[in-house]
Design goal:
Strand order of the largest sheet: 3-2-1-4-7-5-8
Helix content: 40-55%
Order of helices and strands: EHEHEHEHEEHEHHEEH
Structural class: alpha/beta
CATH class: Alpha Beta
Largest sheet: 7 strands, mixed
Number of helices: 8
Number of domains: 1
Length: about 250
């Protein structure tokens, strides 16, 4: 794998055979046109799929020059991202959901907030005044209730922890990764999104929020019940371990 690049874009995938090819081509075409000033690559991070996702991803890596395939044996996007980024060197680390629910056209802005504006962490937010969101009432209610819960428990200020569209600087990754413990990582699949923001705020990293255009993707593979269960277990784990307590702000 190439090291010392400007931007590493990671797309975690699990059982995404139906949309993987179309979405990776869409992302690749965007990057070719809009990220030309940077040295970048796109990595498909497959984690424990039971369908033909791995087969499709491996072929995409052969077809597209700046696309690579990374296979993680365990389910959980957090575990796949942790493992991949642990071994990769980049100035800016980005991950996004494969359904591209967050408009891919925000990618350059996300990258520039790290590369040019000097933020440690940059996140897409569906809850800012300028955000344009198309999402069902049920998911909207659950999402906003979840943010309120995290604010009450952890005192966070960020408006949206769960949007799968985030970026970290290399320095932020170096500070955050030692606080993550994959050997005792309940909730690593979906709580990972919130955990990054909670830890980043607790250790005083500089966070930037981007208002995004976001459309709920049809046929999502996300289970609300499983997500809630994992999030609650992750919250309990963080409250118990408090990994930020020995970090300087």
């Amino acid at each position: 794998m190439i090291s010392d690049i400007d931007i590493l874009i990671t797309v975690p995938v699990y059982n995404e055979e139906k949309q993987l090819r179309t979405k990776i081509y869409e992302l690749n075409n965007y990057a070719l046109k809009n990220l030309r000033e940077y040295r970048y690559k796109i990595v498909i991070a497959e984690n424990g799929s039971k369908d033909s996702t791995s087969y499709i991803a491996s072929h995409l890596a052969k077809e597209l020059k700046l696309v690579e395939f990374y296979k993680h044996p365990e389910q959980g996007r957090g575990k796949a991202l942790y493992s991949l980024w642990l071994q990769e060197k980049a100035r800016c680390y980005i991950y996004m959901d494969v359904d591209l629910a967050t408009d891919v056209n925000h990618t350059l802005e996300l990258a520039n907030s790290i590369m040019r504006k000097g933020y440690d962490v940059s996140i897409g937010s569906r809850n800012l005044n300028d955000s344009r969101v198309h999402r069902g009432l049920k998911r909207t209610t659950i999402s906003k209730g979840y943010i309120l819960l995290l604010r009450l428990i952890f005192g966070i200020k960020s408006s949206d922890t769960q949007c799968g569209f985030k970026a970290l600087s290399s320095d932020a990754k170096e500070r955050l990764w030692p606080l993550l413990n994959p050997d005792n990582w309940t909730g690593a699949a979906w709580f990972f999104d919130a955990e990054l923001i909670i830890l980043a705020e607790k250790i005083g990293l500089k966070i930037h929020e981007i208002p995004v255009k976001w459309n709920e993707a049809p046929g999502t593979t996300v289970s609300i019940a499983n997500t809630i269960k994992e999030d609650l277990s992750g919250i309990y784990r963080l409250l118990k371990t408090k990994p930020w307590k020995n970090q300087k702000v």
